[in-house]
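Structure (tokenized):
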């Protein structure tokens, strides 16, 4: 009887799952893998064409594991392999969304995909899309996608809630920004020289600058709207019916991106160019808001700009070289924080996004990998 009881206990212990654990080695966060590795998004057969407007779900095909150099989470870079990614985003629950174009369309001829991954890179679902969306934003649980003529809204289950058609002339990659609070949703979409702004109480058509079109939009913590394009930085004041204040940006090369501080009381915005990084601050001249450069330009240059969630330290991404740099609040390379000050995605970067814990998610341009770096 004792032998039988011991065998039963041993058998039960073998069936208890191992608890997840994390350890640090060589500057990389190691997490236990699930053994279930979603793979390259490619052909998926077995579905008949349907008139249902809801995009069909897809299941990815397994792909061989891959790895990235120091500074990346190895378990996630092995798990997320996506063919020809074009954009990436992270929602408020840290679900990761990747837009891609597999080499083979689905059975309905839709050539594009939107894939959703959960915590630690676990694959959730995928839908086929007809249009090549280049911009992605999040409003609560909703996913918003935009190209030059369409704005699509999907819910958390990846079902289409609404799809709008508009005309932004020849713009194939419009600027898009969304902010959502308990008071409602603010949405800005920029075409050639104008910005369509929707607020919880009123809609606006905002002018940008003569002969220039915004390439980047962002709301700050007060629902003020920042816009960047040509050689102009503009701020639209929510306390003054979104009246515009502009300043000419010089000394940092061709303008690429902007990122306002996540700290409501600080009122400044980082601006990134092809030759440097600058910081601009809000002021008040007694009558209206002003914008002025707050410090001399920094040498760091790139294509994409983020700030850490809840803070104001910038993160600079260079699409061509694949180099990512973490800076401190003064714009200098991060040092002495227990993390690396830079990391590289081999082959360049097709998309990047920051999650709520300050991890940077990056889609590789040529290696078809999506991974995230350690929190800095």
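Design, position by position:
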């Amino acid at each position: 009887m004792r032998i039988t009881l011991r065998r039963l206990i041993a058998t039960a212990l073998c069936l208890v799952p191992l608890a997840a654990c994390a350890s640090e080695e060589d500057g990389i966060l190691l997490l236990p893998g699930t053994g279930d590795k979603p793979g390259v998004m490619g052909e998926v057969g077995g579905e008949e064409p349907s008139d249902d407007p809801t995009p069909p779900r897809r299941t990815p095909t397994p792909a061989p594991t891959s790895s990235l150099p120091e500074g990346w989470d190895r378990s996630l870079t092995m798990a997320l392999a996506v063919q020809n990614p074009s954009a990436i985003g992270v929602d408020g629950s840290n679900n990761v969304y990747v837009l891609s174009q597999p080499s083979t369309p689905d059975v309905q001829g839709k050539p594009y995909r939107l894939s959703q991954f959960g915590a630690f890179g676990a694959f959730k679902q995928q839908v086929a899309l007809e249009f090549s969306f280049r911009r992605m934003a999040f409003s609560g649980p909703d996913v918003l996608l935009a190209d030059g003529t369409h704005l699509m809204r999907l819910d958390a289950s990846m079902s289409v809630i609404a799809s709008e058609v508009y005309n932004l002339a020849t713009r194939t990659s419009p600027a898009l920004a969304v902010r959502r609070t308990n008071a409602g949703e603010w949405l800005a979409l920029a075409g050639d020289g104008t910005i369509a702004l929707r607020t919880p109480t009123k809609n606006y058509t905002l002018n940008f600058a003569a002969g220039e079109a915004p390439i980047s939009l962002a709301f700050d913590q007060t629902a003020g709207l920042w816009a960047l394009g040509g050689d102009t930085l503009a701020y639209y004041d929510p306390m003054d019916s979104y009246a515009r204040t502009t300043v000419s940006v010089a000394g940092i090369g061709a303008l690429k991106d902007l990122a306002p501080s996540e700290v409501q009381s600080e009122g400044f915005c980082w601006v990134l160019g092809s030759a440097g990084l600058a910081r601009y601050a809000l002021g008040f001249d007694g009558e209206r808001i002003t914008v002025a450069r707050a410090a001399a330009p920094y040498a760091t240059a790139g294509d994409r700009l983020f700030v850490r969630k809840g803070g104001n330290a910038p993160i600079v991404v260079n699409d061509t070289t694949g180099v990512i740099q973490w800076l401190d609040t003064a714009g200098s390379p991060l040092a002495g924080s227990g993390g690396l000050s830079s990391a590289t995605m081999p082959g360049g970067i097709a998309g990047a996004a920051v999650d709520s814990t300050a991890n940077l998610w990056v889609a590789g341009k040529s290696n078809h990998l999506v991974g995230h770096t350690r929190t800095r």
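Reviewer-requested clarification: Residues 76 and 121 are 6 Å apart (CA to CA). The chain is about 5% helix and 40% strand.
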